[in-house]
Amino acid sequence: MAATGNKKVEAELIYPRRQTTITSAVELSGRGLHTGKDCHLRLKPAPADTGVLFRRIDLEGRPVISAAADNVHDCRRSLVLGREDKPLVRTVEHLLSACAGLFLDNLVVEMTGPEIPACDGSAEPLARMMAESGSRKLDAPLEVLQLKEEICFQNGDVSLTALPSEDKEVSFSYQLDYGDRPPGRERCSFNLTGDDYLEELAPARTYVLKCEIAELKKAGLARGGSRDNAVIFGPEGAEGRLRFPDEACRHKLLDLIGDLFLAGPVRAHFSAVKSGHSSNQRLARVLVGIRDSLK
Ligand SMILES: [Zn+2]
């Protein structure tokens, strides 16, 4: 029995496989979506129990920060890690989603700028380079939190549920609802098996509603945003060709997987309705609390 606040949640820790890392270093450069700043990324293999560790090699003292729920600085439009009220690494969700999707547990991410490159708006370039490096098993078991009862959040029309997995699978479903405005109503689901992430989920790009762009720019965000790294939905639908008919929904699911990486590995079925980075983080924090209470 584990406790979250004053509520007890049934859960246990299991060790179903060995931890992994990439086999060799891989690199990529590009501009961040929100800051518009250039950044060179170098992903390096890391020993067991490192998790994903970001290192800003452009700053004095080369500060590091780990991908952990306690290090979330801001999660309104993207996942920003930082400490002492200062952001250190921005827009980490696609990289973390790729790690979860490819079953990569340990990695050091060296960065020469403040934000992970937006690439084409999807996780595909990041995931492809990690997949090409390949995965190497480490001599340590992976600790996975297995839920034995349901956890549910509801906030207005947003809901997020984690259900116990009876079949040893980790799966996600997402429901998007913009009413009659494109992208409209979509539903998609994905089983995390380590196999089809690269083809089925990673290529789904970030999207933005045309009517939101001015507001984002005014808030100092989306400075690196363009048609090359985001799908724009206007009143008539997507501008340009979509990679999947339900690309927007798939992207939200990709983000959910990346956001929940901060909770550590969890075996459950996750079901989300209209949830975003903030609600995803609330669930991640609860899951961390459950894990901590079992130790
Ligand atoms: Zn995203």
Automatic annotation (TrEMBL):
<dbReference type="InterPro" id="IPR004463">
    <property type="entry name" value="UDP-acyl_GlcNac_deAcase"/>
</dbReference>
<keyword id="KW-0378">Hydrolase</keyword>
<comment type="similarity">
    <text>Belongs to the LpxC family.</text>
</comment>
<protein>
    <recommendedName>
        <fullName>UDP-3-O-acyl-N-acetylglucosamine deacetylase</fullName>
        <ecNumber>3.5.1.108</ecNumber>
    </recommendedName>
</protein>
<keyword id="KW-0443">Lipid metabolism</keyword>
<keyword id="KW-0444">Lipid biosynthesis</keyword>
<dbReference type="InterPro" id="IPR011334">
    <property type="entry name" value="UDP-acyl_GlcNac_deAcase_C"/>
</dbReference>
<comment type="pathway">
    <text>Glycolipid biosynthesis; lipid IV(A) biosynthesis; lipid IV(A) from (3R)-3-hydroxytetradecanoyl-[acyl-carrier-protein] and UDP-N-acetyl-alpha-D-glucosamine: step 2/6.</text>
</comment>
<feature type="binding site">
    <location>
        <position position="251"/>
    </location>
    <ligand>
        <name>Zn(2+)</name>
    </ligand>
</feature>
<dbReference type="GO" id="GO:0046872">
    <property type="term" value="F:metal ion binding"/>
</dbReference>
<dbReference type="InterPro" id="IPR020568">
    <property type="entry name" value="Ribosomal_Su5_D2-typ_SF"/>
</dbReference>
<feature type="binding site">
    <location>
        <position position="94"/>
    </location>
    <ligand>
        <name>Zn(2+)</name>
    </ligand>
</feature>
<keyword id="KW-0479">Metal-binding</keyword>
<feature type="binding site">
    <location>
        <position position="255"/>
    </location>
    <ligand>
        <name>Zn(2+)</name>
    </ligand>
</feature>
<comment type="function">
    <text>Catalyzes the hydrolysis of UDP-3-O-myristoyl-N-acetylglucosamine to form UDP-3-O-myristoylglucosamine and acetate, the committed step in lipid A biosynthesis.</text>
</comment>
<dbReference type="InterPro" id="IPR015870">
    <property type="entry name" value="UDP-acyl_N-AcGlcN_deAcase_N"/>
</dbReference>
<keyword id="KW-0441">Lipid A biosynthesis</keyword>
<keyword id="KW-0862">Zinc</keyword>
<dbReference type="GO" id="GO:0016020">
    <property type="term" value="C:membrane"/>
</dbReference>
<dbReference type="GO" id="GO:0009245">
    <property type="term" value="P:lipid A biosynthetic process"/>
</dbReference>
<dbReference type="Pfam" id="PF03331">
    <property type="entry name" value="LpxC"/>
</dbReference>
<feature type="active site" description="Proton donor">
    <location>
        <position position="277"/>
    </location>
</feature>
<dbReference type="GO" id="GO:0103117">
    <property type="term" value="F:UDP-3-O-acyl-N-acetylglucosamine deacetylase activity"/>
</dbReference>
